[in-house]
Amino acid sequence: MKKQRLVILGGGESGVGTALLGKANGYDVFVSDKGKIKENYKQVLLHNEIEWEDETHTESKILNADIVMKSPGIPDKVALVKAIRDKGIQVVSEIEFASKFTNATVVGITGSNGKTTTATLTHHILKQELNVGLAGNIGDSFAKQVLENDYENYVLEISSFQLDDIIGFKPKIAVLLNITPDHLDRYNYEFENYIQSKFRIALNQTKEDYLIYDADDEVITNHLKNNPVQSQLLPFSLTKTIENGAYLDKENIKLTINNNQIIMPTGNITLEGKHNIKNAMAASTVAHLLKIRKQTIRESLENFQGVEHRLEQVLKINKVQYINDSKATNVNATYYALESMDAPTVWIVGGVDKGNNYEELFPFINEKVKAIICLGVDNEKLMNTFGNMVDVIIETQFMSEAVKIAYKIAEAGDNVLLSPACASFDLFENYEDRGRQFKNAVRNL
């Protein structure tokens, strides 16, 4: 019998993980990357005798595939992807491919903001009592973990791009944190397309499965009204009383599932900000469903250290607090960051704008921001939007310079906040690179 041919577009973490899992399961595997494959990934492919190419796509070696796994970074409008689909070849994402080779209980977490924090926090709670992996957009790829560890449970951070290419993927527990306009450049600038993309997380769920979601998010609640899902609903809210799910009652989170209630004081949660109370509610609901002890959930919320590049307190210099929020790649994430500032703030913003509307930030600019430093190749939109709102607005293309300017402007008691509201690809490799450069520049002051 002829081996099934698996072609993988993109030789990054998810691509190489899928290649290893595919080979182990008897596929004829070929990896093709239009860019350069990083040296460490090349070594893995060579060591495992997997055929690969980089800096080109050889169509004759791709269009003979039985199945194609495409990296989430490659848009559907690329000619090669169109050609693959036109031939009727199935295109899947890594989570779709890998999920076929595990019987684990899967928790899938998506949303425009808070995915990484919620997924990391959920994993932090579950790992106290369960055998559990953390994958998706974080750490080692899901495919590689299925091959090497085959955990009994997985927490997956899942982007809309990964959900676009699922067919049968079905998490036992799906979490939908929020939906705000993001990545609209990939969805023909139609917010509705992006909403439907996020809701694909519940596409294959049945009444045996669960959907945990933010009941305060009108985009989500309206969509659910008009497009009911099969799964059991467990909402969370800061403003409403929820009978089955989680809500905030004064200073306590009250979480009820099938008449079994946990009460958790919010004062002891290490993560700050209203949005993090929601993230804690979502993570606790997952843990409660998976029968984690109440005491373990409470303790885990109190000792969780947070995520790098997400409102990460770097250093205090001359009584000025430097905060790295490089992971804020859209306006809504920056909204949460500015909302949680309790001192005059020098704000570093900019990068690749994904069709941003900055209006929701205006109240915070007036109230909290004393100076703006625009850090991007093209800062014109930022200058036009905020130029009249603050006394000091400065442009730069270098992180080290941005931090030095901030150091000069900031006074004792102020904050310096890197919260770009944009993607990082104009000046940096990715948001991690941007965050690390910020931290290094602060340490070098």
UniProtKB/TrEMBL annotation:
Coiled coil: none annotated. InterPro entries: Mur-like_cat_sf, Mur_ligase_C, Mur_ligase_C_dom_sf, Mur_ligase_cen, MurD. Residues 309-422 form the Mur ligase C-terminal domain. Pathway: Cell wall biogenesis; peptidoglycan biosynthesis. The keyword Nucleus does not apply. One of its GO terms (biological process) is cell wall organization. Gene3D superfamilies: Mur ligase, C-terminal domain, Mur-like, catalytic domain, NAD(P)-binding Rossmann-like Domain. GO terms for cellular component: cytoplasm. Transmembrane segments: none annotated. Its EC number is 6.3.2.9. One of its GO terms (molecular function) is ATP binding. Keywords: ATP-binding, Cell cycle, Cell division, Cell shape, Cell wall biogenesis/degradation, Cytoplasm, Ligase, Nucleotide-binding, Peptidoglycan synthesis. It is found in: Cytoplasm. It catalyses: UDP-N-acetyl-alpha-D-muramoyl-L-alanine + D-glutamate + ATP = UDP-N-acetyl-alpha-D-muramoyl-L-alanyl-D-glutamate + ADP + phosphate + H(+). ATP binds at G111, S112, N113, G114, K115, T116, T117. Belongs to the MurCDEF family. PANTHER family: UDP-N-ACETYLMURAMOYLALANINE--D-GLUTAMATE LIGASE. This is UDP-N-acetylmuramoylalanine--D-glutamate ligase. The lineage of its organism: Bacteria, Pseudomonadati, Bacteroidota, Flavobacteriia, Flavobacteriales.
